[in-house]
Amino acid sequence: MKIDINEILTYVHEHIPITTGLGAGIKNYDGASISISAPLDKNINHRNSAFGGSLSAVAILSGWALLFIKMKELGLHTRLVIQSSNFDFSNPVTDDFEAVSQLPPTQDYERFIKTLSKHGRARIAVDSEVFCHDESCGSHQGVYVAVRLP
pTM of the full predicted structure? Predict the structure, then answer.
């Protein structure tokens, strides 16, 4: 199924209102990874760098959006939520930034889809990395749960 990224972004902004406040946008999607961008000016803290909560939220969103789009491409109607989240901050973010998520290794992803199809519920870990000016500023690992809906 062909996915319209603008439709996905509209859905995200309508159903996850914080994404509008964050200024989150889909910068790129290639079928195996997604890049979610956000401006510093909407996410700035008292030290003129990006607020850690914003970085975490955009990283979570990138993993969620990647899986959400993959479920749509497969024609699977699911409820998708994050179960656990861990973010390691490595460098301050002093300008606009992006979070990039990659699909997990093929074997893990295929097991996730097979489990979801068989049991109606599955979980998978998705890694994301936050970049500012092509420099890694943090890494995130989220465990997402998909529940198949009728």
Answer: 0.96
